[in-house]
Amino acid sequence: MNRRSLLSSAAAVAGAAVAAPLLTACGSSSASSKGGTSTKTGLQAALPSYVANNSLKADIPSVNGAAGSSTDPGFLSYPATQTRTVSGVPGKGGSYTAVTPLWGTVPNPGNSFYQAMNKALGVTLTMKPADGVNYATIVPTMTAAKKLPDWIQLPTWWNPNFNVGELVGTQLADLTPYLSGDNIKQYPNLAAIPTGAWADGAWEDKIYGIPSFSSGFALAGTTFFRQDVLGAKGITADQVTSADDLFNLGKELTNAKGGVWAFDDVWTYLFPYFGVPNKFTVTDGKLVHKYDTPQILEALDWHYKLAKSGSMHPDALAGNNNDGKTRFYAGKTLIAGDGMGSWSLTDAQAGVAANKNYRRGAFGVFAADGKSTPGVFLGTNTAEVSYFNAKLKKDQIEELLAVANYLAAPFGSAEYTMVNYGVEGTHYTMVNGVPTATDDGKKYVQQQTYPFLATCRAVISNPGADQVTKDYAAWQAAASQHVYKPVFLNMNITVPQRFATADAAQAVEDTIKDCYHGIKKVSDVQAAISAWKSSGGTQLVQWYSDNVMAKYGTGQ
């Protein structure tokens, strides 16, 4: 029941778009709109003050990293005593509706957990979870009819589908007067959310969204390995300090006749180590798209050679990613790229079920050439933001903000336990110090709904699997020293509809995928990039340069 397991499941249905984009490309904006983008000074004035919550001491404290990052604190056990952070009930008896995405079975509307939550919150909050797989089409139907619920979760990777840049200020309420600066201090649990996460719900110098599942150290993923298998061979992560080291390790580990290949797919989370930017970089004051960098060609050349080396599993080369974890657990592949959500208790349990010695490890951040300064770009501080309906009155907004403050209570608190596990004896029981779901808990609580409206900052907690928490926390601490802010980090940007195809660049991305699977050559990618540039790519970059960088900066 943590951010990483949630995002892992979400990524399974939403694809790489969950982790990859740092910008949002929405439909054409109205004449009066600035396109969603905030100015640096305007955003700073609107952002809520940050006040850390120190109600519970972490077993593994957060570490301050580069670029203002801070790692997630680690907890090796669930607090035996759950401290209360909210006095009384936050609500005043109001009735509201809420819609969140759900990748699972929708609970019965009047179930015991929803009833208990309404009592704890002091409101009647009617939860209406919608199918997460089809959420991108469900929400636009609501907005077209102007029939949004009182509270709705809009995952940021679907901002283009929802056209959020047009909804703010019209259908979505402005929360700036309630949350900006020290105003947020009347909601202390919300004030403890990392500042960068609030920027993900900021549009045109105003705060509209409430973050969920936020982190002070957000990376999309990394390159993992079977630490138990490699460790038995005397191989450790610190022995890999370049792409050549990794390539040669692949040859050493592969035994095709024995059904073992070193690699599954690694491109998605390895390409940054070659110096490839997330989307843009700035060179000599000029905005440059990643497609125009020599680094992407170097990265593709290495991955093409890897695909042809015989060290990649045939199913990975065929694009069969659905069974990637199964191959990894079974030891058929030993090195694989994956989202950070895969480093979790659930992963450990699945891995140990396949091999009792299973242990996940990850290579550190290294420079592909083995000489340059290692670096990897940060991701947005959250990918989930909830919004209030603009039709709500002032007293209703204040009531729902008080509810959000309850939902955002820190890890291990009484409120957190209620939101994530329900009522003791009904929805969970304590087993070896760990809240463990009953049958009703599995049906009603584990099908998460409330956390999509507001949550505390992420923590690393895997009760019963201390080694996972220690390994992940140690990796974060080391990696945090090598992160940097990418261009336009945490900036919501509305791209004109005429550039939507160029911004998605699907033809180029498809060719890149074929290249790192050994189907097409680097020259084919170069040809696809040339076609992209002539069919709108060059104009797109100029638009970003003139309308975003020149006016609002790079967000770095």
From TrEMBL:
What span is annotated as the signal peptide, if there is one? 1-19
Q: Which UniProt keywords apply?
A: Signal
Record's superkingdom? Bacteria
User: Which PROSITE patterns does this entry report, sorted A to Z?
Assistant: PROKAR_LIPOPROTEIN, TAT
User: Is Cytoplasm there in the keyword field?
Assistant: no
Assigned protein family: Belongs to the bacterial solute-binding protein 1 family.
Protein name according to UniProt? Tat pathway signal sequence domain protein
Organism whose genome encodes this protein? Streptacidiphilus cavernicola
